[in-house]
Specification:
The protein is of the alpha+beta class and 67 residues long. The protein has one domain. The chain is 22% helix and 34% strand.
């Protein structure tokens, strides 16, 4: 997973994952298009199933951004 502070994996158009130094944090992006983080969430089985296509696409062609 991500090991560089300040770097996030663009999992979907609206959610990212990053390493906070202790664990992976999943967060939604703000709706205003600023790229800033909004709320954190747990990537549970329900969300994984719902976002399977996006997450699979990311695993094939991963994208990252600087927070």
């Amino acid at each position: 997973m991500i090991t560089c502070p300040g770097i996030a994996a663009d999992l979907t158009d609206f959610a990212v994952a990053y390493w906070n130094g202790h664990k992976v944090i999943y967060a939604y992006l703000r709706h205003d298009g600023s790229g800033r983080l909004d709320n954190e969430f747990e990537l549970d089985e329900r969300l994984f199933d719902q976002w399977y296509t996006e997450l699979h696409g990311w695993s094939v062609d991963p994208h990252f951004k600087v927070l």
